[in-house]
């Protein structure tokens, strides 16, 4: 489940788990690593082949998509796609990277994301490491991020081709749904997690995916990109489709039908509750974004 809900679930729940002890531990590691930094960075790595470390599953996917497999020295333990990522050396978890190990690997660049990695990013920068933070909020900013990573890694032409391919795939779907009036679009609820009940609101990546796929996010007016959402409000807004962004042994309808009042929701009554879309493509802003839109499109517009 860690890899499945990586960035977004980290943003929801690990905020509670980031105790003062945890923050002290990071700072202590950074302090100790400073000693290593002074020694390690005396030796130039300019003559060596580029060595990249990725601490975020999304940036790992981008690096592999650009053909940088051999230059990737290590990744976080949450980086699970493509399959080759699992064979790379691990340098800690998503929110608790091993600073000393990163320094010993002498990376040309460390690729990170926002949210909980902010503390680690600041520490890596204090140690004079080259750090790139990819934290796109929209498809356009994701495309910009891919191009910037391509420029950093000397794969700008490959990045351009990747961006062009993604844009075309997204455009192919958008051209089918752009003419659909908002009021006739099916209402969609994407449940990121069930306890507490959480979803994607306005300004989120997921909200944009739903819109391009031809749906209407019932949480469109929630100001925070990702937030806890009222179960009573789901009932009141009566979504036509419910997509669960996590896996469970029970069938998706069984998961939600037993909740108080949910049996009368249109999506539940019409058996339109799904949990068969890979959560990683839904929640990671990476190269598979067009695939995520297509999967939503196929669920909410099955007759097209």
Describe the protein in words.
This protein has 304 residues and is of the alpha/beta class. The protein folds into two domains: 2-156, Nitrogenase molybdenum iron protein domain (Rossmann fold), CATH 3.40.50.1980; 179-300, Rossmann fold (3-Layer(aba) Sandwich), CATH 3.40.50.1980. It contains 13 helices and eleven strands. Strands 6, 7, 8, 9, 10 and 11 form a six-stranded mixed sheet that branches. A five-stranded parallel sheet has the order 3-2-1-4-5, with helices on both faces. Helix 5 (118-126) links the parallel strand 4 (109-112) and strand 5. The chain is globular. It starts with a helix and ends with a helix. Mean pLDDT is 88; it is low at 13-19 and 42-47.
One letter per element, helices H and strands E, the order comes to HHEHEEHEHEHHEEHEEHEHHEHH
How many helices in DSSP terms? 13
Give the mean pLDDT.
Answer: 88
Distance between the termini: 32 Å
The coarse silhouette is: globular
User: Can you tell me the number of structural domains?
Assistant: 2
CATH superfamily of the largest domain, please?
Answer: Nitrogenase molybdenum iron protein domain
Corresponding CATH architecture of the largest domain: 3-Layer(aba) Sandwich
Q: What is the CATH first-level class name of the largest domain?
A: Alpha Beta
- Report helical residue fraction: 40-55%
**Structural class by helix and strand composition:** alpha/beta
Main β-sheet description? 6 strands, mixed
As a whole number of angstroms, the C-alpha radius of gyration is 21 Å
Number of strands: 11
Low confidence ranges: 13-19, 42-47
Tell me the β content.
5-15%
Q: Under CATH, the topology of the largest domain is which?
A: Rossmann fold
């Amino acid at each position: 489940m860690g890899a499945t809900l990586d960035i977004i679930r980290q943003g929801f729940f690990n905020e509670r788990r980031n105790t003062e002890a945890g923050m002290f531990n990071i700072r202590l590691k950074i302090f100790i690593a400073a000693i290593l930094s002074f020694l390690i960075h005396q030796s130039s790595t300019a003559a060596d082949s580029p060595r990249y470390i990725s601490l975020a599953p999304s940036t790992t996917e981008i690096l592999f998509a650009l053909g940088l497999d051999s230059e990737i020295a290590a990744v976080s333990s949450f980086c699970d796609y493509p399959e080759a990522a699992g064979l790379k050396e691990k340098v800690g978890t998503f929110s608790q990277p091993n600073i000393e190990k990163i320094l010993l690997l002498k990376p040309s660049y460390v690729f990170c994301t926002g949210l909980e990695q902010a503390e680690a990013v600041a520490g890596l920068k204090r140690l004079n490491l080259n750090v790139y933070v990819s934290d796109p909020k929209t498809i356009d900013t994701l495309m910009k991020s891919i191009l910037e990573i391509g420029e950093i890694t000397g794969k700008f032409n490959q990045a351009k081709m990747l961006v062009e391919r993604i844009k075309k795939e997204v455009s192919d779907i958008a051209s089918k749904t752009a003419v659909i009036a908002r009021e006739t679009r099916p209402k969609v609820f994407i449940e990121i997690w069930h306890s507490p009940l959480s979803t994607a609101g306005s300004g989120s990546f997921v909200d944009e995916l739903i819109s391009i796929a031809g749906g209407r996010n019932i949480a469109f007016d929630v100001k925070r990109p990702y937030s806890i959402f009222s179960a009573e409000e789901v009932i009141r807004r009566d979504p036509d489709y419910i997509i669960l962004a996590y896996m469970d042994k029970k069938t998706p309808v069984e998961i939600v039908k037993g909740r108080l009042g949910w049996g009368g929701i249109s999506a539940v009554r019409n058996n339109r509750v799904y949990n068969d879309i890979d959560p990683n493509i839904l929640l990671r802003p990476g190269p598979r974004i067009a695939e995520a839109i297509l999967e939503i499109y196929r669920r909410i517009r099955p007759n097209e």
